UniProtKB/TrEMBL annotation:
Pfam families: PAP2
Cell compartment(s), UniProt: Endoplasmic reticulum membrane
GO BP annotation list: gluconeogenesis; glucose 6-phosphate metabolic process
Recorded topology in the membrane: Multi-pass membrane protein
Name of this chain's protein: Glucose-6-phosphatase 3
Organism ancestry: Eukaryota, Metazoa, Chordata, Craniata, Vertebrata
Location, primary (coarse class): endoplasmic reticulum
Gene3D superfamilies in the record: Phosphatidic acid phosphatase type 2/haloperoxidase (1.20.144.10)
Assigned keywords, A-Z: Endoplasmic reticulum, Gluconeogenesis, Hydrolase, Membrane, Transmembrane, Transmembrane helix
Gene expressing this chain: G6pc3
Species for this entry: Eubucco bourcierii (red-headed barbet)
Transmembrane domains' residue ranges: 144-162, 168-186, 198-222
SUPFAM superfamilies in UniProt: Acid phosphatase/Vanadium-dependent haloperoxidase (SSF48317)
Domain Phosphatidic acid phosphatase type 2/haloperoxidase: residue ranges: 53-187
Amino acid sequence: MDALYTAGIRFAELLQSGPPWLEKFWILVTSQADPKCVFTVCFPLAYFLNRKVGMLVLWTGLVSEWLNVVLKWFLFGERPFWWVHQSGLSSKELLTLRQFPASCETGPGSPSGHCMITGAALWPLVTELTTLASRHSRSPVLKLVPFGAYILLLVAVGLSRVFVLAHFPHQVVSGILTGAALGWWLQTQSLPSRPPGFFVAAALGLLLSSLSLHSLLGAAGIDIDW
């Protein structure tokens, strides 16, 4: 893993060597793509577009938040900002890395929550926009615009997280793939047609399972809050 982490640090150095205007862009992306925007921005917009799509965005965001935490408890994953010191790499080599306010995130880093939650929650919105584009235009290019924008956004979010030293490249890639897969799977489950009781029971199930898992891991001597 050290070789993979070291390669990630080299890539972060390369990103940070870009022009000043690009630095401002990456910081803007990582701040605006915070997972909470799924609930404060994406959900209201999707609900205005289509009630069922809005419900899917909200529910997918909630499930992806839960799954991201659970995966981090098992996969752990170092954070670049801390790893360069803990590994001793910063004392062995001269690193041209800079620190930003978002660099000091703590806790496990794999997979990236920004990439995973954003990728999952936006999936139903993107597919709905693709359907609308197909209805109103025969142009194959126009039909690909929503998914093209979706991919570009996730790539930008991933690069921004590497830039601020919050994640290694492999952590953002795993976050993007896991988020897209989760978004696709949840969309096939016909969630909007489920009764309210289903969502109440599912929400309680997610809460109780996470609390139970946290307690079990602690009892097993695993410090998930390391």
